[in-house]
């Protein structure tokens, strides 16, 4: 029996693929390559060995999914396919509802018809909403996310809860990611944002590499120690291992929720200083206006995953920055032409 990873050629997907191959899982990847890359899958297989069946297609394509479930014996789905740029979700909300919500709905319908009822869903800390106290705990109710991207994640969580209520034979895990950064320590797999990065880590590393001139730090008047926002950055390899750990719950039906974070907050200025001291590169920056929708500070209570799955984030901030920089230096154009 195989595990299907939707979005398996993307940033989190390709790192999850590596960890699954390492544990000898038989894997099928479905990706439409809007944000993912064939090369990431190829490198994962070259590095670890094993065989991956790679299918190009969209998660909203019901006929394709029907064929996929008919042709491959899938026991479990790790559903990562989706759009993830917060700013873009504000400008083009319908794309986000279509890909993230409709995509998850079509996938679940196809799974139901195929008799596949084990699902790991890629969710986000953003579902705790703008008013939640820190640290975020899984026992807290969902709140109002501050952007359409977050709303789509919350809607899919609702949908899956209703599904588990209606049919208790499903096993579903929500993994609520905090801020994944870093790259595989080999330097061969990493984050390859299209165009100018929206997120802090790839922006910093492209400034350090001289591809971008200066970092804009969005706001220095937040109620935090140094005035800049605080986030819980987690190494993408730890996050990927979290998915493999989550597969263990699926043997018993039910709904499980886990935060995947380190439990520690780091400010934007701390990130810049740590990156400069590790790489010896300067990261010029200036303070700019706050970015709309940003929260001042949040981080995870990550104890539940540790208690129940035996998982915890083991890699340090230094590991995250060093691996990001190695990937940036080895593959300055990402998976594109060198
Ligand atoms: C981090 C901090 C910015 C860029 C988002 C999504 C979240 C998750 C991960 C996934 C913030 C500041 C950033 C820059 C800056 N989703 N910043 N200058 O917004 O915490 O989380 O990505 O797919 O759901 O919301 O991450 O990396 O964009 O920002 O000052 O050029 O860095 O203001 O405080 P964020 P981020």
Automatic annotation (TrEMBL):
Metabolic or biological pathway: Carbohydrate metabolism; galactose metabolism
Cofactor(s) the record lists: NAD(+)
Reactions catalysed according to its record: UDP-alpha-D-glucose = UDP-alpha-D-galactose
EC annotation from Swiss-Prot or TrEMBL: 5.1.3.2
Highest taxon of source: Bacteria
Database matches in InterPro entries: Epimerase_deHydtase, NAD(P)-bd_dom_sf, UDP_G4E
Pfam families in alphabetical order: Epimerase
Domain NAD-dependent epimerase/dehydratase: 3-261
UniProt KW keywords: Carbohydrate metabolism, Galactose metabolism, Isomerase, NAD
Family: Belongs to the NAD(P)-dependent epimerase/dehydratase family.
Quaternary structure (record): Homodimer.
PANTHER family to which the protein is assigned, alphabetical: UDP-GLUCOSE 4-EPIMERASE
Protein name as catalogued: UDP-glucose 4-epimerase
Top-level taxonomy: Bacteria, Pseudomonadati, Pseudomonadota, Gammaproteobacteria, Oceanospirillales
């Amino acid at each position: 029996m195989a595990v299907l990873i939707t979005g398996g050629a993307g940033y989190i997907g390709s790192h999850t693929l590596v960890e699954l191959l390492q544990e000898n899982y038989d894997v099928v990847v479905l990706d439409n390559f809007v944000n993912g890359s064939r090369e990431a899958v190829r490198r994962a297989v070259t590095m670890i060995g094993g065989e991956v069946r790679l299918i190009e297609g969209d998660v909203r394509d019901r006929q394709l999914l029907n064929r996929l479930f008919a042709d491959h014996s899938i026991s479990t789905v790790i559903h990562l396919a989706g759009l993830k740029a917060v700013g873009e979700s504000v400008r083009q909300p319908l794309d986000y509802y279509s890909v993230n919500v409709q995509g998850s709905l079509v996938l679940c319908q196809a799974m139901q018809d195929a008799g596949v009822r084990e699902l790991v869903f890629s969710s986000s800390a953003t579902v705790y909403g703008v008013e939640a106290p820190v640290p975020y705990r899984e026992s807290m109710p969902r709140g109002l996310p501050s952007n359409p991207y977050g709303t789509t994640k919350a809607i899919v969580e609702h949908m899956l809860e209703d599904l588990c209520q209606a049919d208790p034979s499903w096993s579903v895990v929500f993994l609520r990611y905090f801020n994944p950064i870093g790259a595989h320590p080999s330097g061969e797999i990493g984050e390859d944002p299209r165009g100018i990065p929206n997120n802090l880590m790839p922006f910093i590393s492209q400034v350090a590499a001289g591809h971008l001139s200066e970092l804009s730090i969005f706001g220095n008047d937040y109620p935090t120690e140094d005035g800049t926002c605080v986030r819980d950055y987690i190494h993408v390899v730890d996050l990927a291992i979290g998915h493999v750990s989550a597969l263990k719950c699926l043997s018993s039906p039910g709904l499980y929720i886990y935060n995947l974070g380190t439990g520690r907050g780091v400010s934007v200025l701390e990130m810049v200083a740590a990156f400069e001291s590790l790489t010896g590169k300067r990261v010029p920056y200036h303070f700019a206006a706050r970015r709309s929708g940003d929260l001042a500070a949040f981080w995870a209570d990550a104890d539940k995953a540790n208690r129940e799955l035996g998982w915890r984030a083991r890699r340090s901030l230094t590991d995250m920055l060093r691996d990001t920089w190695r990937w940036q230096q080895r593959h300055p154009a990402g998976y594109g032409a060198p």
